[in-house]
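Hi Y.,

Following your request, here is the sequence exactly as I used it, all 547 residues.
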Amino acid sequence: MSTWAVPGYAESLQLGAGASGRVVLAVHEETGVPVAVKYLSESLRTRPGFVHGFRAEARLLSGLESPHVAGLYEYVESPDGAAIVMELVEGVSLRALLKTRGPLPPEAALVVLKGSLLGLADAHRVGVVHRDYKPDNVLVLPDGGSKLVDFGIAADAGTSAGVAGTPPYMAPEQWTGAPASPAADVYAATATFFECLTGHRPYAGDNLAELALRHVDAPIPADEVPESVRDLVRHGLAKDPALRPAHAEAFVAELEAAAAASYGPGWEERGRRALAGLVALLALLLPSARSPRTTTDTARTVLGRTPGGAGTWLPGPAGMLVSGAAVLLGLLLTYGLAYLPAAADRQETAARALATTSAAPGGEEPAGPAASPLPSSSASSSSPSSAEPAEPSPSDPESTAPTTAVPAEETTDPAEAPPATAPTSAPPTTPAPPSAPSAPAVKDVTVSEFRQTGPTTATATVTVTADGPGPLSITFAWFTGSTAGQPGVQDGAPETYERSGATQYTLTVTHAFRSAGCYWTVRSTTAPASADGGASQQLLTRGCDLQ
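Below is the corresponding structure, written out as tokens. Let me know if you'd prefer a different format.
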């Protein structure tokens, strides 16, 4: 396990751990805001593919602003590690709720589905596909609301990102590596909804091949759910993605119409009250109730035959083809993971932040010259949890790709925890008092990306290169206008971030524009001032009709 910690955060206890990394509860030292810090494991940090995926997760989250998704505060990378600092959501995983309380009442199941679908809808709106929707990645809050977490294998819609996901919830097209599609998220959400209503998944299998066959060919077991929601289940679990709702927002509209018709106008309030009562019974699983003595959380589901399934059925030609692909996938995972190389030796240099991605959910601006990447207003009410990585198991059909992170809510018995290794003692030394670093010369400021992420939002990525690790500040200013090549009028107050400890910094910041204009401009400057005076970039907004 890596001992590197993100500078500026005081860690208190570990929330979960596995082969892909660990998640710890921490407090931002400047503001006192609790956060969840997700570290990439030491063994994977030396593998470029895993580091690239970890950065991609942070990039996708930085452009996603939603009250139904655990927000990103900061991405930090150093010679000794990489970490994503996220909102700490005070909630219990839907997996824990189902495991301890059994099937949910229909109104409660509809509320859970609606809340997490709203999170998916916000992601789909900016072109992000989650690809790993399941009960583990839905957190139910004490007030009965819910949030979606763990975008570890998310991808831009339409991209070919390979076969990945959690098999019991994977859409038929996911098994073949089809391009990422919002319709696949709708399928997974419906499979989770089915499990909420019945206590078991729509399809079971003893291995990947059998499970793939059932998802591709087996009849939809809609008769097992209440008649009032059978059409929802049939539509969401359609084998052909073209026959499903195209995105989560469309499915929310169907859900609300079906729920109101069957259960009346008060269905949502009754469902939230039922969920709040169930979470209250599991209060000890909330992050705020955990103590430093809590051991590592893990979650693993072993698939078996579930009573009351779809009945006797024989696969068709398409199912046999996917079955063969699933067998091959299982073999590749089994033998591929066995040869993961050991982590490289730790570098002797002290941990220095090399790259930091800051995105303040809600477009809030840092206050003061030493602004924190954490938004002071929303973070104070932020509550615990985020995605907790679990160890991928090639022999378990629950895990198909080493990049899949599984949040955990089961607490391991301390007697089963591996014994701790006592550190080697060393004579105490008295470190010399550090000298204050001098301000560096800023050599270059570059806007590497500036893109529109919504009707009024955009994300800018800036890289700053200096000749030393001394402290510097990076300021973002935003402008709107109607003339190409001219910045126009400043939009909102500038945002300033303080950085030190490295010679290169990359920051990604999201801004919500308040003024109308066909052209948006971002300008980045530094103090000390850079030799080139800073950098700026302009974009033409989508949907702007130029005459």
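Confidence is low (pLDDT under 50) at residues 291-312, 331-436.

Thanks again,
Q.
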